[in-house]
Amino acid sequence: MDTILVTGGTGYIGSHTVVELIEEGFPVVIADNLSNSDLAVLDGIEKITGVRPAFEEIDICDAGKLARLFDTGREIGAIIHFAAFKAVGESVEKPLMYYRNNMVSLMNLLEEMKAGKSANLVFSSSCTVYGQPDTLPVTESAPFKKAASPYGKTKQMSEEIIADVIFANPSLNAISLRYFNPIGAHPSGLIGEVPAGMPDNLVPFITQTAIGLRGELKVFGDDYNTPDGSCIRDYLHVADLAKAHVAAVRRLLDRQNREAMEAFNLGTGKGVSVLEMIKTFEKVNKIKINYSITGRRPGDIEQVWADTSLANRELGWSARSSLEETLESAWKWEKYYRNHNK
Ligand code: UD1
Predict the structure, then answer these.
(1) pLDDT value, residue 197
(2) How far is the CA of 220 from the centre of ligand 1 (A)?
(3) What integer pLDDT is reported at residue 258 of this predicted model?
(4) What are residue 263's phi and psi, to 5 degrees?
(5) Which residue puts its alpha carbon closest to atom 38 of ligand 1?
(6) How far apart are the C-alpha atoms of 271 and 4, rounded to whole Å?
(7) How far is the CA of 121 from the centre of ligand 1 (A)?
(8) Is there a contact between 150 and 156 (Cβ–Cβ < 8 Å)?
(9) Which residue has the higher pLDDT, 65 or 340?
(10) Is this model's pTM higher than 0.90 or not?
């Protein structure tokens, strides 16, 4: 089996993807600088799969170190590139840090690919590339609207750069996966999301409020043009999302020499409001969330959910878990993590 290089493989989506790759028999090498993750993640992966993946602590913005990683004699069948900064608000405050980190790392990887070190790339993209789409559900052919943050722009620019490089180098292939809102944790409860400091995202904020780490969840706006007034997103289980990466790797390995980068939406195809999320969490986990309504969060879009028919058809993938199971897994992980990190 071809070895898969996973940048950012100790992160939230990366670690779940490493589990799925190992379970499908792929040898994995993780490259991560641990800037937003912990080596203990490797223990969780090993407990789940029985295999401890190879790990290289490097910052892939360092071109010299990245070149040495490729020169260790391993054949890299494909690269899955997760390593990037992802906090929307922080990117507004520190745009240069975001542009440098997210763009330099990608260009370093593309240079190595161009030099023949690997022919295949799976890129971690986001529905943020669409902005607020004109029609819902959004399909892959929807135009990129102006991104609301430097973070969003790095995803748009990354896709454009990859597409240009693939076009200019016909032996290289790439798939961009546009995630909607990944939530939850591995059903074992042994790996999951660990936000650094105050969480930006809804579900970690819900679980941290439930466990008593935060006093109150603030719902950002109930005056949107949606049935209950709160924003609508397409929340999918991170373990389902991880499986799509294996499907994308197989597609690249099986059919080399594509001419253009492909992009796929990954979501459930169903929109759920913030208030519905809170109610469902309370119901399945039998716990009350202390919350109040506050003003809109700048940069939030009103509603978005995915048309996933292309991924269903071409990758043979769909999100299988119910919202209930997903929110149960998020709570299981929060309890496990707090119990083991007191
Ligand atoms: C956004 C991007 C996503 C990106 C992610 C990274 C869009 C559509 N999505 O996700 O691509 O990867 O940021 O962080 O641009 N909410 C509250 N209270 C909270 C937190 C969130 O009410 O304390 C609400 C938000 O207003 C939003 C929903 O919950 O309506 C989801 O928010 P969040 O989890 O932060 O994800 P997005 O902003 O959708």
Answers:
(1) 86
(2) 10
(3) 66
(4) -130, 140
(5) 300
(6) 33
(7) 27
(8) no
(9) 65
(10) yes
d(CA 59, CA 101) in angstroms, rounded, equals 9
Q: Are 13 and 39 in contact (CB under 8 A)?
A: no
- Residue 37 confidence (pLDDT) above 70: yes
Q: What is the pLDDT of residue 256?
A: 55
Q: To 10 degrees, the CA torsion angle through 122, 126, 129, 135?
A: 120
- What pLDDT is attached to residue 257? 52
Name the band, by pLDDT with cuts 50, 70 and 90, for residue 255. confident
The tokens of 253 are what? 């390995």
Ligand 1 binding pocket mutation candidate from 128, 158, 293 (most atoms within 8 A of CB)? 128
The first and second tokens of residue 160, run together, are 């454009």
Nearest to 141 by CA among 151, 152, 150, 129: 129
pLDDT at residue 224 tops 60: yes
Query: Could you give the CA distance from residue 45 to residue 167 in angstroms, rounded to a whole number?
Result: 36
Taking CA atoms only, the protein residue closest to ligand 1 atom 10 is 181
CA distance 156 to 253: 25
Residues marked active site are found at 151
Structure tokens at 24: 């499908």
Atom 20 of ligand 1 has which residue's CA nearest to it? 202
By DSSP bridging, strand 232-233 and strand 272-273 are antiparallel
For the residues 114-138, what does the mean pLDDT come to? 96
Nearest of 340, 158, 118, 319 to residue 238 by alpha carbon: 319
Print burial letters for 126-160: b (CB count within 10 Å at least 16), e (below 16): bbbbbbebeebbbebebebeebbbbbbbbbbbbbe
The whole-number average pLDDT for the span 175-198 is 95
Structural tokens at position 6 = 């996973």
Q: How far is the CA of 65 from the centre of ligand 1 (A)?
A: 34
> Could you give the CA distance from residue 97 to residue 234 in angstroms, rounded to a whole number?
29
Residue 213, token pair as written in the block: 């780490």
Contacts of 208 (CB under 8 A, 6+ apart): 199, 214, 334
Q: Are 76 and 70 in contact (CB under 8 A)?
A: yes
Neighbours of 190 (CB within 10 A): 21
Output the six-digit token pair for 236: 């999918």
